[in-house]
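Standup notes
- HV: blocked on the assembly model, inputs below
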Amino acid sequence: MPELPEVETICWRLREGGQGEAPLRGRVITDVALADPGVVDGDSAAFVDGLRGARVQDIRRRAKWIIIDVDDRGGRRRRVLVHLKMTGDLHVRAGDERPRFERFAWELDDGARLCFTDPRRFGHVELLAADDDVEARFTALGPEPLDETFTARALRARLTGRRPIKASLLDQAVVAGVGNIYADESLWLARLHPTTPTNALSDDEVVRLHHGIRRALRESIAQSREALAWRYENRAAPSPFRVYDRAGGPCLRCGTTLSTTTVAGRTTVFCPRCQPPP
DNA sequence: CACGAGACCTGTTCGC
DNA sequence: TGCGAACAGGTCTCGT
């Protein structure tokens, strides 16, 4: 499921606790339960052994990656990278719970467990070597769209080629963390048709797109509880999204029926009136 | 080189 | 109600 706002919210939830969960920071991993060794990149035995006795120091996000800093039982700083891909989730559960689709879990010193669940098994986890440079893993990623340094000018500089603008938004080297949902949300806010050639955007359109990306992501993080509840628990609740999953319904701005098309192989929803073809 | 299609997996939803 | 087909938020790899 997760794009930048959902991954950000999961990191926040793990860091701060809440919703019945205790904060993960400071917990010691007493054991590792590996229900599906296939989710571990690299040596799965080293993953289990390297984390046993480790203490969690921090949980961070870069693009759609979750980075967990731990100090292993020898006191060395190690990093765990988790990518949730389409259907992964990471959450703290009571010690006696065994969630459906659990792939691995860390048994914690307070009796709880950090569970990684993923029905589709696209997600992966990796324990980096002690001397591995985390940042080096992410050099191909574009800027964080919510950073102060991500300006309209910075966006413009990366918008090259004549592929559809939606394909560019899905490219993690252009903007890190945007996926199919927030690409559609951003383009609707910017009133841009998803197939507009990237290099045909005017300066004004780039400014609108820059604004749309940041607004869509910021507002989703702010409403993250709703978004998560909608995603995971209650599809009957009102959709927190402006166009995603609303095909066939009315545009929230002009009432025109929202259309779908396929761009870059992905289902794409847009308003044919607010977002006229290029 | 740039771009799109296919592959990776499996659960859920849709249509007959 | 049952069953197969279509579809799903991401990212790599490969072929054109």
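- HV (later): unblocked. The first helix of chain A runs from residue 4 to 16. The mean pLDDT of chain A is 92.
- Next: hand off to the docking folks.
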